[in-house]
Amino acid sequence: MNYMIKEMDDEIRPRERLKRYGAGALGNDEVLAILLRCGTKECNVKDLSAKILNEIDGIKNFSNVSWEKLSKIKGVGEVKALTLLAALEFGKRVLAESNKETVKMINSKTIYELFKYKFAGVMQEMLVAVFLDVKNNLISSKTIFMGTINKSVVHPREVFKEAVSCGAGKIVLIHNHPSGNPKPSFNDEVFTEKMVKLGVEMDIPVIDHIIIGKGAYYSITNHKEYKDEEI
């Protein structure tokens, strides 16, 4: 028989503590316990939560763990692993949407701060186009491609079609390097040059291409790498 949260004393039930004191009062293991719902015969749900955090070396690494690795932790399995990653993605989307209305895209830093969460835990390259008006206000963003960014795979038509559709005045491109090194490759440079030229022709300038790595990003326009501690 599994040990459910409801079998704990009221004072230590994460859900009861959430209702009484608010989500901010909960520890990381308690938040995780609510999502997991139950433990196993050998391990109650709070202990399982602590075990998961220990296995991945803390909450800071949660966005980088795969569902396969999570599911192999004893007591987790596929359903719980997928539930946790879905909850993580939902939180990232809430944060991104709430920031859209408050952040003006004045430079590469503000764009990076807004979109870095979208790339957290993504294990392959992903290209996102960010569409701005002429005053650098965010209009929308769209994931254009997932795979390996190169000049032959990503077709510019998709980017500029979306830009025209939403009435964008400027475009910023963002993609990630799963290796963690944000410095641009030769293909990145060639692709950026092509997109900038097309932007001039279309009168919708591509004003930057930001590459996100681990704790850092590179602005191709500024030819400079920025680390989180420097931002």
Structure, explained:
With 231 residues, this protein is an alpha+beta fold. The protein folds into two domains: 5-96, DNA polymerase, domain 1 (Orthogonal Bundle); 104-230, Cytidine Deaminase, domain 2. It contains eight helices and six strands; from the N terminus they run H-H-H-H-H-H-E-E-H-E-H-E-E-E. The chain has helices at residues 14-21, 28-36, 45-55, 67-71, 77-100, 108-119, 156-166, 186-202; strands at residues 125-132, 138-147, 170-176, 206-212, 216-219, 224-227. A six-stranded mixed beta sheet has the order 2-1-3-4-5-6, with helices on both faces. A hairpin with a 5-residue loop joins strand 1 (125-132) and strand 2 (138-147). It starts with 13 loop residues before the first helix and ends with a strand.
Q: Which structural category do the helix and sheet elements fall into?
A: alpha+beta
- CATH fold annotation of the largest domain: Cytidine Deaminase, domain 2
**Widest β-sheet, arrangement of strands:** 2-1-3-4-5-6
Give the strand tally: 6
Radius of gyration: 21 Å
Mean pLDDT: 84
Q: Approximately how much helix is present in the residues?
A: 40-55%
CATH superfamily of the largest domain: Cytidine Deaminase, domain 2
* CATH class categorisation of the largest domain: Alpha Beta
Low-pLDDT segments = none
Query: What amount of the residues lies in strands?
Result: 15-25%
The CATH level-2 architecture of the largest domain is identified as 3-Layer(aba) Sandwich
Q: What is the terminal separation in angstroms?
A: 50 Å
Output the number of helix runs.
Answer: 8
Q: How many separate domains?
A: 2
Query: Element order, helices and strands?
Result: HHHHHHEEHEHEEE
What does the largest sheet look like?
6 strands, mixed
Shape: elongated
